[in-house]
Amino acid sequence: MDFESKLFFEVLFSGAFLKGAAISLSLATLSQFFAILFGFFLAIFRLGKNPVLKSFAGVYIWLFRAIPALLLLLIVWNALPQLIPALRQEWYSPFLAALLALSLLEGAYMAEILRSSIMSVDEGQALAARALGMTPTQVMRKVVIPQLTRIAIPPTANEYIGMIKYTSLASVISLQELLTRAGNGVSATFRYVEYYAAALIYYLVIVSILMILQSRLEKRYAWISTTKKSGKVSK
Amino acid sequence: MDFESKLFFEVLFSGAFLKGAAISLSLATLSQFFAILFGFFLAIFRLGKNPVLKSFAGVYIWLFRAIPALLLLLIVWNALPQLIPALRQEWYSPFLAALLALSLLEGAYMAEILRSSIMSVDEGQALAARALGMTPTQVMRKVVIPQLTRIAIPPTANEYIGMIKYTSLASVISLQELLTRAGNGVSATFRYVEYYAAALIYYLVIVSILMILQSRLEKRYAWISTTKKSGKVSK
Amino acid sequence: MDFYNQKEREGFQVSLIDVQKVEKYYGDNHILKGVDFKINAGQVKAIMGPSGSGKSTLLRLIALLEPVHSGKILFNGDLIAGNSDGSRAKPESEKVLALRRRGIGMVFQKFNLFPHLSAVENVMCALTTVQGLDKKDARNQSIHMLERVGLGDRITFFPSELSGGQQQRVAIARALVLAPQLMLFDEPTSALDPELVREVLKVMEKLAEDGMTMLVVTHEVGFARRVANEVLMFDEGEIVEALPPDQFFTNPSHERTKKFLEHVQ
Amino acid sequence: MDFYNQKEREGFQVSLIDVQKVEKYYGDNHILKGVDFKINAGQVKAIMGPSGSGKSTLLRLIALLEPVHSGKILFNGDLIAGNSDGSRAKPESEKVLALRRRGIGMVFQKFNLFPHLSAVENVMCALTTVQGLDKKDARNQSIHMLERVGLGDRITFFPSELSGGQQQRVAIARALVLAPQLMLFDEPTSALDPELVREVLKVMEKLAEDGMTMLVVTHEVGFARRVANEVLMFDEGEIVEALPPDQFFTNPSHERTKKFLEHVQ
Amino acid sequence: DWKADLVTSGTLTNCIDPEYPPMEYYSNGTSGKIIGFDADSSAALAKELKLKIKQLATSFDGLIPALNAGRCDIVWTALYLSNKRLAVADGVPYLETGAGVVVAKGNPKKITDLSFSLCGKRMAAQGASSNEGILIAQNKVCLDTGKKGIAISSYPKVSETVGALLNGKVDGLIETDVGCGDIVSKNSKRLEVAKGYFLGDVQFAAYMNKGAALTPVVQKAVEKLISNGTLAKIAKRYNLDPEKLTSVGAPI
Ligand SMILES: Nc1ncnc2c1ncn2[C@@H]1O[C@H](COP(=O)(O)OP(=O)(O)OP(=O)(O)O)[C@@H](O)[C@H]1O
Ligand SMILES: Nc1ncnc2c1ncn2[C@@H]1O[C@H](COP(=O)(O)OP(=O)(O)OP(=O)(O)O)[C@@H](O)[C@H]1O
Ligand SMILES: [Mg+2]
Ligand SMILES: [Mg+2]
Q1: Is the CB of D164 under 6 A from ligand 1?
Q2: CA triplet E11, E14, E15: central angle to 5 degrees?
Q3: Which candidate in A134, B119, C119, C140 could, as Cys together with A138 as Cys, close a disulfide (CB 3.0–4.6 Å)?
Q4: B232 and chain C: CB distance < 8 Å anywhere?
Q5: Average pLDDT score over residue span A24-42
Q6: D25 in ligand 2 pocket by Cβ < 6 Å?
Q7: Among candidates B116, B204, B208 on the partner chain, residue whose Cβ is nearest the Cβ of A155
């Protein structure tokens, strides 16, 4: 089977692929955002002293790390509306269901990442901040979060990039994102090289952009005065 | 559709499920092991000064974070043997191909996790170790690795647990693990509640065991003298 | 235990801080064994004592950074830590503590600068967050304070780019800029070079003259002599002696103090 | 620059360490501006000088922890850093440096203990890893050394469980246990309590008596007087004066030294 | 010589996706032998060619890559014959089929054909199947004639379309008549096959690599298996209509 570059370019610039990529990207972005939010609170609960919240977080992380995404998607899409009649309405779209499932799931993973990042912030930091009269919330916002961010960026970027590819699982609840589109094209024509190559180009572009953003973020969190030119960061 | 508990237990203790779980677990464990190995060297290269290794690691991480697992599995199983005749032999099984693909892929993710863990180790540590006359290898083994481990445990456990579920993708190269088995059963009978519930039990057991191991490891890396009873770890 | 013999200044009769029978355990380790003393507003007390005797722990307790086991601490006559009957105490909520803490400033033995903020941002940080000052004012005050500790030319440097001495000076500026009612110093000059020690001590002397109440763990005999109203000898979790500096350094009564002073002077 | 006037001990005529015209930049910052001095085997030199003048940087260079920009450093007559003609130098491979470093011990201003090892393991660590001692011997030597710095009852504690002073003492034990030919101390006692300072200084004096060559950044006048063969005044990346301690403390010739000594004494 | 080209000499390797009863599935759900019309027919083919059969279970996305890469000799697993596919592979048709619609018991939404009775309905289909194509085309017709369109949701597997129907996410699902029969037989209390007029003009085909020496051999053998009644027997075993076996070994 030769590589048909005409088909490849057609696929690459097709509306279906563009739309599929847009769905992947927006679903991944929103899910990751909510997952960071959930995960942060779960991490705080797990590190905190309140025994109810602590065990809630423990059970949540246990359960949602165990449940396969495929299964959770099916539950959220098929079973949940039977319990909550409101979800039987039109507005409860596959996109929303996928967003819910992936945010819940990824929240458990982000909780662990953020917990280890929080632990890596030196204890003296919180001590000094508290001594300055900061409330626990201020200590978090002004001292702990900026410092944990540096440690959390690479694994979070990992998760986010993984999430973009993970969205393809949402095809089980009839959401057609990038990889599903490619698979559809392949099964209709058996021309897998062209379709998957086109999908790969999309992923490479998306991941390149994310990696550039990531390295920008990491530079911002290097804590070196910008006035200095030759950054000596020995290791 | 009622829950048929007889079918559920039959499925739960069926040889196919047990075998599927064994494949998931062993494939995930080996892949994660090699991924940590690859990832460690990639992280070192990326943080190091050698420009060739540095850019090699950069390109590797970029490429393997972008490529979808499905595609890489197809390449490793179908395309690679065309380039390397040795791989056309019997011994190059779907399991080995999946192991290769997943290790390569996960290596890119582990590289990022380990890089951020290495960066979180205080610079003074390496300085002191070097001043004691340790070689770079000894500094790594005796000082940096034990300290980065603490930070790396939770995100690595995340990856490992994710990997166990990720192995289901290997069905595309005719490896039949746990989730694929469940899917087969559902297709044959349309009884997805029983099959998926049985799969979930397996995942819950596996993840529980892993989380117990994880918390043991974390305790070992808490760096508190074991003689003390009331561990005061304020945060 | 009536070894109090304070030079009480006119106009300051209220005890700003009053530590009563404070005990502290870490696990099974009994660190503070009933510590008892007060400081009137405007007074300066110095604490001396060997390593591991619990000096830093005492300061952390007064700064409300850790709960007391039993005993109590009064600030301005208000109970801020422990139970009013001095019995075993439950830890308070952090929010309540944050408010109570606002009159008290602390400088640490290790500097604990925020690594993600430049020198001036470290100093500004509490001004904008806790005191709610606007950025410009906070910045001006902070720069001024950094100049006073001799770091006018390093304001945009990050902690990792400063030498040990420079870092400690930023930490001191950060505490001083909040101008609290009570300042706790935990060996604030121990990592500073002699030249700079004097500058910093000058700042602290000036503060004392302005009526600031201070509790200083220090081994700077000169400073204690000039500035302190009283020097407390601390050993194994207890105050073993408390005397005005003249007497403390020339004619201490306790064996432990005599032995300790051999090393200091 | 011929201000060398060393009490050379009999039998020690070879310079153990010889620093020649060493320069160092951090980015555009010129930190060391041609530093020149030598220490004969068995000699002790003290360095004094203000904060930020580059004292720690000089020690890091001699310990081969950072490359020199230009100039050279000889150890036992062998070139260990820089080019033989003193021109701009390329950094060496870390493996080569690790071997060259083995004769040189260093104690840091910040303690840099390994947080994942207990006190005794911190001390043992280099003995087993670098010197290849078996565990039991290493442990015995380490416990002995910890006892000498007064920490016999803390050997299984982790750094996070030790007070500042205790941590610094472990760091000193860790360097001393390797018994190197040259010891570099970067303000080793600045975070220690006066009592313990004396103990540690005693250990260092004993080392000096046993013929150990030492370079000590310190502001302990008493120690410098008793132990040092020469005191170097360091300012803005240069040695501005080098005199035997008697002369240095009583009759310095340089303006900068005179001003500095006002603060120290 | 086609025998030399076999992946494993003396063995016919068939790539099969065992998630489509009654055409191919595991004998006891999750394990055991792969059985079904396609599995048994390919085994009969192997026997006819004096070869052993090896069924290589491969999920859908991996089927054709495996064929191209020489992992299997043939892909006989209920794939439709289409011109697009014939452009890259050789196909041998063996069974006629057509689209049917499965609806809730009693057909409350009154779906009676594949044309205007679908307008305004919610339909599920397996993604990228020809059946989905039928819905897409009819949707256009509905819209062009001023009627409400069809809300199509596509799922990767047949079992998921069944789930959507059972959970009221859709009013009906479109599937091959073969699939329809199987679905209803396993959910006879809640589902039924919609009655009325439905199309029947597509064929299942077994695929080989383009221009493979094996293709004419398979074509001849399949013709023989149909004419000697072997496939008819297998069809009856799985409740399929033997009449639908193609008599012409037509387009390749
Ligand atoms: N978080 C903690 N957990 C357990 N023990 C602790 C903790 N902090 C301090 N200690 C112990 O409490 C004792 C007193 O410590 P503290 O830091 O108050 O002494 P210090 O007088 O300030 O000493 P130094 O002059 O060396 O700083 C020490 O023996 C130390 O081991
Ligand atoms: N890694 C670094 N990158 C950039 N500048 C540095 C670095 N380390 C030190 N400096 C700068 O070099 C100068 C000298 O620092 P050094 O630590 O050698 O001084 P010092 O004499 O030891 O001071 P102190 O007595 O305060 O420890 C300082 O101005 C500091 O800002
Ligand atoms: Mg202390
Ligand atoms: Mg220094």
Answers
A1: yes
A2: 140
A3: A134
A4: yes
A5: 96
A6: no
A7: B116
SS3 call for A222:
coil
Give the whole-angstrom CA distance, residue B155 versus residue B32: 12
| Ligand 1 and C109: CB distance under 6 A | yes
Give the pLDDT band of residue D10 (cuts 50, 70, 90): very low
| Torsion sign across C-alpha atoms D56, D59, D65, D67 | positive
**Which spans in C25-118 are helix H?**
55-62, 94-100
**Cα C214 to ligand 1 centroid, rounded to whole Å:** 21
Q: What is the mean pLDDT of residues D59-63?
A: 93
Please say if the pLDDT value at position A161 is more than 50: yes
Q: Please report the domains of chain A, with CATH numbers, ordered by start residue.
A: 12-221 (1.10.3720.10)
Indicate the DSSP class of residue C73.
Answer: E
Residue spans per domain, chain C: 116-179
Mean pLDDT rounded to a whole number for chain B: 87
Q: Is the pTM of this model over 0.90?
A: no
Q: In the 3-class helix/strand/coil scheme, how is chain B assigned residue by residue?
A: CCCCHHHHHHHHCCHHHHHHHHHHHHHHHHHHHHHHHHHHHHHHHHHCCCHHHHHHHHHHHHHHHHCCHHHHHHHHHHHHHHHCHHHHCCCCCHHHHHHHHHHHHHHHHHHHHHHHHHHHCCHHHHHHHHHCCCCHHHHHHHHHHHHHHHHHHHHHHHHHHHHHHHHHHHHHHCCCCHHHHHHHHHHHHCCHHHHHHHHHHHHHHHHHHHHHHHHHHHHHCCCCCCCCCCCCCCC
The set of residues, in sequence order, having a beta carbon less than 8 Å from that of D89 and lying 6+ positions away, is D67, D68, D69, D70, D71, D72, D81, D82, D83
Confidence of residue B235 (pLDDT cuts 50, 70, 90): very low
* ipTM for the whole complex: 0.77
The pLDDT, as a whole number, for residue E247 is 60
What are the DSSP E strand ranges found in chain D? 15-26, 29-40, 44-48, 70-75, 78-82, 104-107, 182-186, 213-217, 230-235, 238-243
pLDDT surpassing 70 at residue D11: no
**Euclidean distance between the first and the last CA atom of chain E, given in angstroms as a whole number:** 20
What percent of chain C has pLDDT above 90? 37
Q: Report the sign of the C-alpha dihedral through residues D107, D108, D111, D115, in that order.
A: negative
What token pair was written down for D116? 């994942």
Of all ligands present, the nearest one to the C-alpha of D219 is: 2
User: By alpha-carbon position, which residue is closest to atom 8 of ligand 2?
Assistant: C161
Mean pLDDT over E61-78 rounds to 90
pLDDT class for D151, splitting at 50, 70, 90?
Answer: confident
The verdict on B44 touching A (C-beta cutoff 8 Å) is: no
- Per-residue pLDDT band at D195 (split at 50, 70, 90): low
Best of D167, D195, D217 to disrupt the C interface by mutation (most C CBs within 10 Å)? Answer: D195
Over residues D185-214, mean pLDDT: 76
- Tell me the nearest-neighbour CA distance from D60 into chain A, angstroms: 13
Chain A interface includes E87 (CB < 8 A)? yes
